[in-house]
Amino acid sequence: MNSVDYSATYGHLSGAELITVMTRQVFPGRIAVTSSFGAESAVLLDLVAQVDPSVPVIFLDTGELFDETLEYRYRLERQLGLTDVRVVRPASEDLAEAEDLWRTDHDRCCHLRKVLPLARAVEGFDALIDGRKQAHGFEREALSTVAFAGGVVKVSPLANWDEDAVRKTFVARRLPSHPLVEQGYRSIGCWPCTRPTKPGESARAGRWAGSAKTECGIHTSLVLGRDGAGI
Binding residue per annotation — 193? Predict the structure, then answer.
């Protein structure tokens, strides 16, 4: 089945229904979740846990995450019963090069701290589930629930969910909020490049504020091929 077929066949599904079909029928044993354990991550992870808590969850620890994010990861992992959270970190040589690179070259810093580690971690998977949403704005406004990118099928079960749907799910499912949300953080990444959003701003306006950058690259770059070829 090619990329067009995946979208045509499964693109109308969303939420738990899409996760169920993808994990149990289409890509059993060959699909993983990528999660930042950020502001809205609990909604996606809760849906995944309801379907199958053993689905691998790949968590990128860049070395520059908020302490609150690391603590939140443990809390969600325990509360949701996730049994296969895989912590992925940059290689030591990449980390050495990245050091304070966030001050001068955001793209290179993200490449070393996020893109390369994730590319290595997802080898062997044919599909990746993520929590991206059209409501985040910028490049995500045209996001579809199923797409083919970077050699894998990207599954976004919450693509067409708005902020109200996310908020209601937090309440209905009694999901804990990320500790920084109450301080105005609506999208949470590495601490040097994340700030609270201002009234009227989109959720991701606090990421790399003051620059034209809106994506770290993990959703737009090619992943490593099965033969280990570079990005």
Answer: yes
CA atoms of 93 and 176, how far apart (whole Å)? 36
> Could you confirm whether 216 is annotated as catalytic?
yes
Q: Which domains does the chain have, with CATH numbers?
A: 3-206 (3.40.50.620)
Q: Is 87 annotated as a binding residue?
A: no
> Which position has the token pair 């049994």?
83
The pTM of the full predicted model, rounded to 2 decimals, is: 0.85
**pLDDT tens, position by position, 178-201:** 999 999 888 888 888 888 888 887
State the Cα–Cα distance between residues 23 and 51, nearest whole angstrom: 8
Give the other-Cβ count within 10 Å of 162's Cβ: 11
Place of tokens 């970190």: 89
Q: What share of the chain is helix, strand, coil (3-state, %, to 5)?
A: 45, 10, 45
> Which entry of 205, 216, 218, 224 is annotated as an active-site residue?
216
Does 109 belong to an annotated binding site? yes
CA distance 6 to 166: 26
For 83, other C-beta atoms within 10 Å of its C-beta total 13
